[in-house]
Design a protein that fits this description.
Helix content of chain B: under 10%
Order of helices and strands of chain A: EEEEEEEEEEEE
Distance between the termini of chain B: 37 Å
Largest sheet of chain A: 6 strands, mixed
Structural class of chain B: mainly beta
Structural class of chain A: mainly beta
Radius of gyration of chain B: 13 Å
Largest sheet of chain B: 7 strands, mixed
Oligomer: heterodimer
Order of helices and strands of chain B: EEEEEEEEEEE
Helix content of chain A: under 10%
Chain lengths: 113, 114
């Protein structure tokens, strides 16, 4: 079974500052990794995913994440945030051959002017 | 094109009543998933279908929960004899078949059991 830990429930940051949202996972097998964003009153939207290959993954809206197998981490980063990035961010994993996603508890990013 | 749609968006029911939640996936998406999201938590997997076949129902919490997708398109999640602990956001997602494909999520149905 897999599990996902998002240590930070809330991350306040000023506009145009860099941000990192942390995600650690636990699994006995190789996993696929995902970051989803949820804006208020909307469904979840995929930001980026890691399936294999290059450990640095670039996604939409200027976000990127780096897969670190030795540290079992998949932290999300953005060099300069905007007010519009205020949302809830979820890290998720799935095992190859299993379609179910296991989500973390989410990190609320609050971008302040 | 249209995204995943769910109805109703909000459902308030009394304890002991049955409820049916509907999901209409993106046209052409073979796979359909149901998740439940409690307040302040990430979505929790319930079940998924490929076409009309239920492939994995390991996340259904008990036998009061069931799901069907009889024609391989629209799906219904049914909760019988609802309890207050069933109150949550129920989310549906769909995807193309194949590993690692993006799951597109609907807006969810907010279920409140009084």
């Amino acid at each position: 079974a897999q599990s996902v830990t998002q240590l930070d429930s809330q991350v306040p940051v000023f506009e145009e500052a860099p941000v990192e949202l942390r995600c650690n996972y636990s699994s006995s097998v190789s996993v696929y990794l995902f970051w989803y964003v949820q804006y208020p009153n909307q469904g979840l939207q995929l930001l980026l995913k890691y399936l294999s290959g290059s450990t640095l993954v670039k996604g939409i809206n200027g976000f990127e994440a780096e897969f670190n197998k030795s540290q079992t981490s998949f932290h999300l980063r953005k060099p300069s945030v905007h007010i519009s990035d205020t949302a809830e961010y979820f890290c998720a994993v799935s095992a190859p051959g299993r379609r179910a996603l296991t989500f973390g508890s989410g990190t609320r990013l609050q971008v302040q002017p | 094109g249209a995204g995943v749609s769910q109805s109703p968006r909000y459902k308030v029911t009394k304890r002991g009543q049955d409820v049916a939640l509907r999901c209409d996936p993106i046209s052409g998406h073979v796979s359909l998933y149901w998740y439940r999201q409690a307040l302040g938590q990430g979505p929790e997997f319930l079940t998924y279908f490929n076409y009309e076949a239920q492939q994995d129902k390991s996340g259904l919490p008990n036998d009061r929960f069931s799901a069907e997708r009889p024609e391989g398109s629209i799906s219904t999640l049914t909760i019988q004899r609802t309890e207050q602990r069933d109150s949550a956001m129920y989310r549906c997602a769909s995807s193309l078949v194949g590993v690692g494909n993006e799951q597109f999520f609907g807006p969810g149905t907010r279920l409140t059991v009084l």
